[in-house]
Amino acid sequence: MASKFQVSILPKYCKGCGICVSVCPKQVLALGKDKAQVEHADQCIGCLNCEYHCPDFALTVTEGGNDE
Amino acid sequence: MNYKDLLRKDKMPHIWCPGCGHGMVLSAFLRALAKKDFDPDNVAVISGIGCSSRASGYLDFNTLHTTHGRAIPFATGIKMAKPGLKVIVLTGDGDSTAIGGNHLIHAARRNIELTVIVFNNNIYGMTSGQYSPLTPHMKLATTAPYGNIDYPFDLVNLAKGAGATFVARSATVQPRHLEKVIGQGLDHNGFSLIEVITQCPTYFGRKNKMGSPVDMLQWQRENTSTTGKEGTIPLGIFAQEERPEYGENYFELIKTLGEGKSGE
Question: Given an 8 Å threshold on Cβ–Cβ distance, is A60 in contact with B4?
Answer without folding.
Answer: yes
